[in-house]
Amino acid sequence: MKARFFSSPTADEAISKSTLQNCSPISPIAHRKEVILRYAERGALSKAAADDDEASRCHDGLRQTGGISIVPREKTLHIVASLIRSFSRIGGFGARVFTPAQNAEQLHVASRTTCKLFSPAFRKAFYMAFTCAFVRPRRAASRRGDQATGFATFPCSTPQKSPLVFTVSIFPRPSEASPSRRFSRHHQHSGDASRTSREIGILKRSAQPTAMCAAFLAEAGAMGLSAVSSVSRSVADGSALTGAQLISSPAEFARRENFLHSLWLAFAPSPSPSSSASSRALPRARAARLNPVRRPPLRVIPANHCRSWVTSDCAFTSSGFLWSKCRLRGSGLPITGR
Amino acid sequence: MLDKKGIAPLDDARQQSASLSNVTEVYPQIRFITEVRYAGKSESTSVLGLPDSSRSSGALTA
Questions:
Q1: Which of A112, A88, A96, A93 has the alpha carbon at shortest distance from A35?
Q2: What residues contact B62, with CB distance under 8 A and at least 6 apart?
Q3: Cβ distance of A161 and B58 shorter than 8 Å
Q4: Which of B28, B43, B46 sits opposite A93 (nearest CB)?
Q5: What is the ipTM metric for this complex?
Q6: Four-CA torsion B58, B59, B61, B62, nearest 10 degrees
Q7: Closest residue of chain B to A162, computed from CA coordinates
Q8: Rg of chain A on CA atoms, in Å
Q9: pLDDT of A40 higher than 80
Q10: In terms of pTM, does the model score above 0.80?
Q11: A35 beta partners
């Protein structure tokens, strides 16, 4: 078998890291040809469940979904190539399985972060951010015509062939992405909006996002998705960091002097030992005793190995990207926006 | 595309940015932790969606 890229944007194919296959680092070809993903698929609530949920109607007249249903699924992907080098340069953040983006979107995977998506900023989208690549960043002559979009930008480490092609992550600002503000207001009006019904495979919108996250972890564990549950619990408890967390809370990291260095750190989740007991809701003290919190080791990718860039000011506005300056990391070459 | 509060839903912002003249590519970031079975073994790992541009962006070339 010859290694190749995906045959199409929707192909059921995967590129995996060689560490997953535990094969020789000099072999670019997987010994096995298939990998199976087990995940929780999200879906719409049934009409009966939605009608039963009084919290599904917002008081500003905007009808929103009152929750989601989750179903355990399996997906078989054919391995077309395996990586023997680190993939962190393109923002892999420790990922070991890669599939076409369009294919991944069509899986409709539910995760702990899905619980954050019940907010106006994510009214239609079920992803936390999108990436935008653009050329010839410009400095805006006037900002008077620009409107704030409510979105924040964040530089990506995606290497490009041209030094004038730049990529940024665009995501709702944390204050807008958090559903707690909106829901807490809703809770204040409706009184009973914070109740969480225990129905198999049903996650109803809650006044507290953490309640939805806890409900998801319990449901995933009950469905036998112990790996999903245990790792997500580690993330929720702060014992593991993921790239998604890094992206979702850039302000916290930006205060650190070496923040831009940390962008290229590989955050490896530290999965707790999977067991049927640990996958269920346990008291925090007992869970901590069974699964001791262990901070993941950070692996530093040398900066001079990155063909990436940093920026001090890049904003996504209604009229385009506003740019102040940036410089290439590694080469030390300054580039002024124009 | 802004709503009453001046906040564009993420999908609208995605379409809006794609229509800008100097934008070459826009794609959602799909990344999730899941259970993976390979060669009879199960383990937890992250799965990442790769855009088609990775084919030629230099990310996967030697």
A1: A96
A2: none
A3: yes
A4: B46
A5: 0.85
A6: 110
A7: B57
A8: 22
A9: yes
A10: no
A11: A77
